[in-house]
Amino acid sequence: MSDIPTDPMLGRLIDGRYEVRSRIARGGMATVYLATDLRLERRVALKIMHGHLADDAAFRSRFIQEARSAARLAHPNVVNVFDQGQDADMAYLVMEYLPGITLRDLLKDYGRLTPEQTLDILEAVLSGLAAAHKAGIVHRDVKPENVLLADDGRIKISDFGLARASNNNTATGQALLGTIAYLSPELVTRGVADARSDIYALGIMTFEMLTGEQPYVGDAPMQIAYQHANDTVPMPSSKVPSIPQELDELVLWATARDPEQRPRDARVMLDQLLDVGSMLRPAAAGAQTMVMPRGGQSSGVLLGAPVSALTAEAETQILGAATLVATGPGAPNDLVLPGGGTVPNGTVLAKKTRGRKTRGYWLFALVLFLATLVGGTGWYFGSGPGSEVAVPSSLVGTTPEDAAAQLLELGLIAEPGEVYSATVAEGLVVATDPDAGTRLAQDSVVTVIVSLGLQPITLPTLAGLSQADAENAITGLAAVVGTIDPVFNADVESGVVIAATRESDGGDVSAGGGYFEGLTVNLVVSLGAIPAVAGETVQDATAIFADKGLLVTRGEESYHDSIPEGDVIRGTAPEGTIRAGATITLTISRGPEPVEVPNVVGMGWSEGKQALIDLGFELSYNPGADLVAALLKITSTDPVAGTSAPRGSTVTLTGQI
């Protein structure tokens, strides 16, 4: 607490409207403050991006864009986004303030939850996610830290759309571990996320709520990521045998490694969850429970589970009905009120007796009043100024003109909006704000959001980058890594990109430039040079090539002056591009080429010596012969003339004056 008074933000007026009161939390991307909206006189949560991130124009632009997307979500299980702006060097986001705790806090207090409590939280979170998925928004960071449990019993999911922006941050330690624990296999391996990635994270969170632990743990983030990509999430009942089979199946469905095997979005999973809930909850379980955190905390979590489902450490309050209990010898069957007080049974009976005497007098007047009220209300909402119409779902996929005409017929006013979309063609309606199905009064404004098509991106030069850096550059710009083609190249270091092409038409993208999100890029990556094996034995050369994934075949044999017989002179690759699996042909040495010893007998000493040296022979003779070379003639050679001997072998000379 000692650093709070020194926070320079406390007391500051942001954008002339939001007065900072206190700090709520600090994360890797931003700090959240409690502030007062002086214009509307209400408390809000003010999220201010860290300064080093605000300096990044691309990050700031994405922060603003994602905030606008989140602001479109109006749902009781989603934390509302009210405003977004820039004050000097600060980018900020204004959100609904919800005093309470997070699901992470609850799990720290209780370890694990009962199946009934888990169902209640899942139903709320899935409802919020379903609204987001319908609007084309992927959360990307579903985890207990982002599920808020308000003091008044509401359950909401926060930080919609902002997880994509936070991927640019270099957060480490526990924050990174907390996020990696919920990453889907496709995010780990390809950096690609859709609604099914949220479902996977929710399945991991469900496992944690039911068992009190995460399915994958490790000392380093990469260990956990590897398990997500390669292992199957175990059934929760393997940790807690009492967990029903239906919840086991729900978790396994949500956490399938193949996205195609999961629910396609939160609405599909919510429908299944409701079916599971109807089977698992007792028919008479109508009481709600409030779980109070240990240690005297004031925040509570309202869950719709029966009282018997609570853990032994929780304090339980039964809400919504009075209960008859025996409070002591003097007052049997006293009435316990929802607020906690009791009223003696005799007092209750006396009040009922007095009530019967007066009830008849006003009952007739009440009936007349209600009849008048019903008639007036029917006119007001049926044909009067209070009549409402639903925003039609048929607008998506139409032209803006057709959408405006449909809204005009319903008495609503169309207002244009734009958004980039990878799923809806340019110029057609992506969504509306408010969403389809929302009931509005006559003359209300509906924003018709039209697709701008694929969002433009600018790829950097990829040739010359390492494979890992090239893949990060591609996925970081919402493009997709396609095939990786490893080839041998003597001019490019192993692991470095040689070329990059578009999957759609094979066009070259090695020099980078302007493209669009969703682009699939294929990479050609160097394996380095084909190994040189001159002078190696055939066995060693075969092992060297096998280590590079290359096959060998024995080719011709050739004489070689310096490479011993049976060893490799060279390995020859086939023409064209060489990939792993290619066959290298080995040329084998036959040793030095044999030479016929010439007839030098009778020649002068110096002339005969030179003839033998020119043919590559080594000579052996009495060194003193060179002193009288002019007088000597060669009288014999060993081996004799006409004999074949290897080049470089020794010939012995004898001379005589």
UniProtKB/TrEMBL annotation:
Superkingdom of this protein's organism: Bacteria
Instruction: Please report the stretch or stretches of sequence annotated as the Protein kinase domain.
Output: 18-274
Q: Known InterPro entries for this protein?
A: Kinase-like_dom_sf, PASTA_dom, Prot_kinase_dom, Ser/Thr_kinase_AS
E.C. designation(s): 2.7.11.1
The Gene Ontology terms for molecular function here are:
ATP binding; protein serine/threonine kinase activity
Q: Which reaction does it catalyse?
A: L-threonyl-[protein] + ATP = O-phospho-L-threonyl-[protein] + ADP + H(+); L-seryl-[protein] + ATP = O-phospho-L-seryl-[protein] + ADP + H(+)
- Ranges where the PASTA domain occurs: 386-452, 524-590, 591-657
Q: Which Pfam families match?
A: PASTA (PF03793), Pkinase (PF00069)
A biological process from GO: negative regulation of fatty acid biosynthetic process
Q: Does the keyword Transferase apply?
A: yes
Supply the enzyme class, top level: transferase
- Where is the chain membrane-spanning? 361-382
Q: Which UniProt keywords apply?
A: ATP-binding, Kinase, Membrane, Nucleotide-binding, Serine/threonine-protein kinase, Transferase, Transmembrane, Transmembrane helix
Q: Can you say what this protein is called? A: non-specific serine/threonine protein kinase
- Print the organism lineage: Bacteria, Bacillati, Actinomycetota, Actinomycetes, Micrococcales
